[in-house]
């Protein structure tokens, strides 16, 4: 995006919504949360909003290692029975103190088949959960497993909470729910009794602005305070030159292209590999990403403790792609002429970067004889299709916390993890992958887990259920008067409680 374009459109952007009078920190984001109940909301926007309202039983530190959050400590002697001790003096927004009853209810409701939580598949090894006393919870697994603790990275809800929690959430987080106007704004206000200390600002407003250019213009007009990752890199660089503060940190977010294995064309490994060799991933990173992304060869970046470097990788090799298509029986009907070998459909969101990326992939595939039809949707529509398996191919992004532990591989690629049990949305099935994942789930110490999940990554790289595209470099663009903007690898919003305006720095008027 050229600087002149931003300036020209800025003149016509007088219709931007005003900032809340409360002095809340305003963050522009492209999509609305689907569900504010942490038992159900699995999309990125829902996860971000939930981070402000709820706390996890066990959290992560800055190196994505498990760390206390609502739990003060935990212990196990046999990797089958886990005792979790709760912090005392933690209160929900309705005033009642967090106890083991709330924790037990959270997990039993997730395990209840009638509740149909998409997180239920993560707890197939959990046999019982019970309260030993007011502040101690016992989890008993069906078999010893070192992968269980990551499943306690779950936001805790009040005992007895109904499905109404999706619209009126009550948690223990630094902010309490104030208002949600769908496709407009989620507003939360400072919770004065937060156990981690009250926020340094009166509240946060998550404003839904679907268009990339409009999000950039709202920053320029100062009708927004902050945008995190949700800008086309070209616009981000232009806004930095205009005086906004840019903060970056290597991220965990993972962009991928997924296949539907119920489609007879895409069941063929040669076709999937041909697509992988045809996509110029480096050009996407360099020219679209503007350095705010790095090539991905799997779900985990090189900084991840479970990352396995010795796996099959796709290079940009159109000749090899054509040879694989020939081998699969999709020969070019007219040589270098216009007729395609086959036609496929790619679904993606209507965000600007995703549209541009889809256009690059479309052109790449055209060069090897594949006609690609691109269909763009609002996120909610795309996500609904993905959950129903209504696609041939799609591009989406796993966000930071989701890939913190390698157990995510089981929930995404095990044949028993198709929705609603898990996240195997493409119905991928491989007996060897299932065996390796089951074996990895039984590992207890860190090194054994690393070695076993390495074998899983090797097998998945060979079978290509996903084409890995890139890992995001997290970035935030903020008004220069904001203090305390500090991103994590997961790009979560928990840092917002420490954000304030510098003394004497009033919000400047809109231009």
Task: Give the key terms.
single chain, 511 residues, alpha+beta
The helix-and-strand class reads alpha+beta
Report the total helices: 13
* C-alpha-based Rg, rounded: 23 Å
**Percentage of residues assigned to helices:** 25-40%
Most strands sheet: 7 strands, mixed
Care to count the β-strands?
Answer: 19
Strand content: 15-25%
Mean pLDDT: 91
First-residue to last-residue Cα separation: 21 Å
Broad shape: globular
Low-pLDDT ranges: 1-19
What does this 3D model show about the protein?
- The protein has helices spanning 3-11, 44-53, 100-111, 212-220, 233-241, 269-278, 281-288, 318-327, 352-366, 379-388, 408-413, 431-442, 446-463, and strands at residues 25-29, 58-60, 66-68, 71-76, 81-86, 126-133, 136-141, 175-181, 185-190, 203-208, 226-228, 245-259, 293-295, 342-349, 370-377, 393-398, 466-478, 482-483, 500-501.
- Helix 6 (269-278) runs antiparallel to helix 8 and helix 12 (431-442) packs antiparallel against helix 13 (446-463).
- Strands 11, 12, 13, 14, 15, 16 and 17 form a seven-stranded mixed β-sheet that branches. A four-stranded mixed β-sheet has the order 1-10-9-8, with helices on one face.
- The protein has 511 residues and is α+β, with helices and mostly antiparallel strands.
- The protein is globular and about 75 Å long.
